[in-house]
Design goal:
The chain is mainly beta. It has 6 helices and 18 strands. The protein has a 9-stranded mixed sheet with strand order 4-3-2-1-10-18-17-16-15. β7 and β8 form a beta hairpin. The longest helix has 8 residues. It is elongated, with a radius of gyration of 21 Å. The protein starts with 20 loop residues before the first helix and ends with a strand.
């Protein structure tokens, strides 16, 4: 195996970006995190793949869930322009007595200005001579390098968590279903001037009334007026006949100073047939948020997304942390 791998700034100091938004504030990174569920070492485990980006480098982290979901085995790679030998390699963990290998080839990766790579790369996780997770378009190269066959069980994308920065408008791309297409999500917070003599001036912030628009593929899906009173809430929208529940918490955008973030959750709702298979689940869904209860607290108190959708459900959820920069 190769030499110890350098840790990029966005993964340093043992900070967990998924659980500590303040860590993103300190490091100033754009972070995209995807959580997959698949079979590793005879058990269903979670694999977390994290990409980060700052002005100098891109970073990659691959974590495999350990026994009983406690310890994690992590491989971290930094992609500095002047380090060529670390853009391809492998690392081995021993999980419950079985070898788990991480292979990557990022030599010719094209990021196109984004945090996640677009093409010319692969990241593979191997266990029991099977490729249990394979990301990227260089699939033939990955199978040739690992010398292993595809796993009989396809990994399930359970959740996606993104930290993005902007002033007024925030955009991302997401698939709500594995076989679906990418959808463009745009979130914009606007200030509408209130006219003198209008009673709404009493409830406005400094003579302006904030409102928020969420667009899917350019079409208006959600328009929230009087945002100073409706800074937490949830509504349903429809995307290609799929119902998507949208939760938001923009309190800090309106009432905090400095670099601050809002949290948005996009959760596709399963069909009635699929929901019936989950009717025996004892884990409660996310409750309808109210202005008195921060959405981030609801997600923490309900456990991770994987706990919200037990039993191998393929339901996907997007967590979007939108950091507002003045």
């Amino acid at each position: 195996m190769q030499e110890p791998i350098g840790i990029p700034a966005c993964f340093s100091s043992g900070e967990k970006l998924s659980d500590d938004p303040a860590a993103v504030t300190r490091s100033g990174q754009s972070v995209f995190m995807s959580v997959f569920r698949t079979k590793i070492a005879d058990h269903c485990r979670l694999i977390t793949v994290t990409w980060c980006k700052n002005l100098l480098l891109h970073g990659l982290s691959v974590s495999v869930e350990g026994p009983e979901g406690e310890n994690q085995y992590t491989c971290k790679v930094e992609l500095k322009p002047w380090y060529f030998w670390r853009k391809q390699g492998s690392k081995r963990f021993i999980v419950d007595g079985k070898a788990v290998d991480i292979f990557w080839d990022l030599k010719a990766t094209k990021f196109n200005g984004e945090t996640e790579p677009g093409s010319e790369y692969y990241v593979a996780v191997v266990c029991d001579e099977e490729v249990v997770l394979l990301l990227g378009d260089l699939k033939k190269d990955a199978y040739r390098k690992t010398g292993c066959r595809p796993a009989l069980i396809d990994p399930i994308l359970v959740s996606r968590k993104e930290h993005i920065f902007g002033k007024k408008k925030f955009s991302t791309r997401v698939k709500f279903h594995k076989k679906g297409r990418f959808h463009e999500i745009s979130i914009e917070c606007k200030n509408r001037s209130t006219t003198s003599g209008n009673m709404s001036n009493v409830n406005s912030l400094g003579g302006v009334e904030p409102e928020m628009e969420i667009r899917i593929d350019g079409h208006l899906g959600l328009h929230v007026k009087h945002l100073q009173w409706k800074f937490r809430g949830n509504e349903s929208i429809h995307v290609n006949k799929t119902r998507v529940e949208v939760y938001w918490d923009v309190h800090d955008w309106l009432f905090s100073r400095g670099l601050r973030h809002a949290l948005f959750i996009f959760k596709p709702i399963l069909s009635p047939t699929s929901l019936s298979s989950l009717s025996t689940s004892s884990s409660p869904p996310l409750s309808s948020s109210s202005p008195s209860t921060p959405l981030s607290s609801q997600t923490r108190s309900s456990g991770s997304l994987e706990r919200l959708n037990p039993g191998g459900s393929s339901e996907f959820c997007l967590f979007l942390y939108a950091w507002k920069v003045e």
